[in-house]
Structure formats: C-alpha cells, structure tokens
Design a protein that fits this description.
2 strands; mainly alpha; globular
C-alpha cells in the first residue's frame, strides 16, 4: 500500500513547507549575515530595511541637500522595486505549475548572493547595497507568516516588540499561546543574531567572499522547498501561504 505523504504539508495539512518555522529561522539567519556583510565590507550600512534611509532622506530634504536626497532614493527605490516584483511574480509563476514563487525566490537569491560575494572590491559598494536591498525586500514581502505567526525574515524590531508584549501576557495569564509566541519570536531574534555573528567571523577569515557562506543556508532551504514542490506538495502549488 502506497504511503500518503500529503500530511507532511503540516499538522493535518495545515501549513505548507514554505511556512515552516525552520525556513524562517534559516532566512533570518541569512539576513543577519547580509547586514553584517554590508556593514563590514560595503559602506558601513545595513541592507535589511529602509527606516534609516528614510530618516536620512528626510534630513537631506530638510537641509536642502538635493544630491544627498537623490542618492538616498536609490536604495529606497530598490526596496520598493523588490516588493513590487515579488508580489507580481508571486501571482504569475502559478501558471507554470512547477515550483512555488517562494522556492524560485530562494533559488535566485542563492545565486545572487554568490555573485555579489565574488565581486571584487573595485565594484562600487552601492551596487552590492542595492542588490541586497532588492533581495531583502523580496524576501520580506514573500515570507510573511511562520506557521500562522506573522514574522519578518530580514529584521528583528517587531520580533523584539512581540517578545516583550507576549511575555507580559504570559506572566499575567500563563497561557500557552503567549508562551508559544515568545518562543517563536525569541528564536527569530536568536537566529538573526547567529547569522550576524557567523557573517562577522567568516568575514574576518575570508573577507569579501564570506557572503557566499550565507548562500549555503539559502541552498539548504531551496533544496527542501523544491523537493516539497515536486513531491508531497505537488498538488498544492495553487495554495496561497498565509498572510498573502
């Protein structure tokens, strides 16, 4: 009798492989690596979010620094473009009935990260910053909920807030839901930290090519997601992950 693997799509088929916590832990670890890399080797900036760039853009406008304002529009626009592109492609690739957009994105991200890591120092830092801004935006927009819990995979500000908020709820009510959220968001913070630490250590050893180390994390995610798409979730490619 052939074994039915459909249950492997989650608890009673509830969650897709791309929604699993382990996927989010890996992705946020890679994002922590990205941030350490750009800060150490590519201009002393963080590529994961745009809050700081918006503040700097506002300051430039306030000072009448047109050149500075236009320069800051480049990474902001790259982040915007990443969100737009991922949303558009996420709806389009379903017609292929081969792999999910989530899987394709991680595969493309793996290749892009290797290419960026192998670029020589002579390549302007802005090229690497913009490329990683674009990648982080697509990842942030594509992966939204970890087994039903809204989660960001490129920065930890909200995760820190959620740990504090849910810890207060747990202390007050001793409920399992709050405890579970504290563990999930706490783990996201830990893996982001671990990725940043690993990127720093590897950067001290290998220099610019150290970014390729994060590609190993992404490659593991891609292989597993591709396997899910072509086997036990093959008949679920039309199913939309939570949060979309």
């Amino acid at each position: 009798m052939k074994k039915d693997n459909s249950s492997r799509a989650g608890k009673n088929g509830e969650f897709l492989e791309c929604e699993r916590k382990w996927v989010y832990f890996c992705l946020i670890a890679a994002a922590g690596w990205f941030g350490a890399y750009t800060f150490l080797f590519r201009g002393g900036v963080f590529c994961n979010a745009q809050t700081a760039n918006i503040v700097l853009f506002a300051m430039a406008v306030g000072k009448g620094d047109v050149k500075g304002a236009l320069y800051l529009l480049i990474p902001i626009s790259a982040y915007f473009a990443g969100a737009f592109f991922s949303e558009y492609m996420g709806k389009s690739v379903k017609r292929l009935h081969f792999l999910r957009w989530d899987t394709i994105l991680v595969g493309a991200e793996t290749i892009a990260v290797v290419i960026i890591g192998l670029l020589p120092k002579s390549v302007p830092d802005q090229v690497c910053q913009i490329a990683l801004n674009f990648i982080c935006s697509m990842q942030f927009n594509t992966f939204r909920q970890s087994e039903g819990t809204p989660s960001a995979t490129t920065f930890v500000t909200n995760h820190i807030r959620q740990v504090g908020s849910n810890l207060a709820g747990y202390i007050r009510h001793r409920d399992a839901v709050s405890a579970g959220k504290v563990r999930t968001h706490g783990a996201m913070i830990f893996f982001f930290f671990a990725g940043g630490a690993a990127g720093t250590v590897c950067g001290g050893i290998a220099g610019l090519p150290s970014l390729c180390g994060s590609a190993l994390i992404l490659l593991a995610v891609f292989i597993r997601l591709a396997y899910a798409d072509r086997s036990y979730e093959r008949n679920m490619l039309e199913r939309v992950p939570r949060g979309h």
